Amino acid sequence: MNMHPPVTPAIELRHLTKRFGGHTAVDDVNVSVPSGSFLVLVGPSGCGKSTLLRMLAGLETPTEGEIAFAGKVVSSGKGGVVTNAAARDTGLVFQSYALWPHKTVEGNIDWPLKVAGWSKEDRAARIDEVLKLLDIEPLRQRYPAEISGGQQQRVAIARTIGPRPGILLLDEPLSNLDAKLRVDMRSELMRIHRATKATSVYVTHDQV
């Protein structure tokens, strides 16, 4: 008889609850996400999707319950933020993209790598790699104001995956794009997800 040890999920939410005053934004959520999965959270605005994502990123603390990454508790309603956002091995793509307007495309991708302590040579190699993966190599010396919304979205994703996070969090990253581009980019996101081998959590209100 073959006995396989239980596989520790990449993300585990245990009775996760978040309240703002008298309003409950996230109510007793229990989810186990296997490593390498692509989890999609669909729901209308105001249902708590983005709040849950912010708790995963370490930007909000749970009122009750726990968040564990690879079996290690990173947030607890009892203890607040156990592991701060910078130490969580997560990358967050904001709905607004939040690109630095004074930095070029290359500079936007380079900065998180520099902060993380990557060497100049390793940063240059990784920048080339993600520019190629996102098909934005010709844009490397342009500024955010000089490129389209779809291109800005690609830059935001490139910047986020640059440091190779184990968990990729996407907060409605396609909502600012037109309908056709949203369809195209959904396929792109799956391709990027497979290439990075990250565990991804994607938040959207779009059911199509």
Order of helices and strands: EEEHEEEEHHHEHE
How much beta, percentage-wise? 25-35%
- The order of strands across the largest sheet is 2-1-4-5-6
Number of structural units classed as domains: 1
What does this structure look like?
With 208 residues, this protein is an alpha/beta fold. It has one domain (11-204): Rossmann fold (3-Layer(aba) Sandwich). The protein has helices at 49-57, 105-115, 120-133, 149-161, 179-196, and strands at 11-20, 23-33, 38-42, 64-69, 72-76, 80-81, 90-93, 167-171, 199-204. The protein has a five-stranded antiparallel β-sheet with strand order 2-1-4-5-6, with helices on one face. The longest helix is centred in the C-terminal third of the chain and has 18 residues, at 179-196. It is globular and about 45 Å long. The N and C termini lie far apart (45 Å). The model has no long low-confidence stretch (mean pLDDT 90).
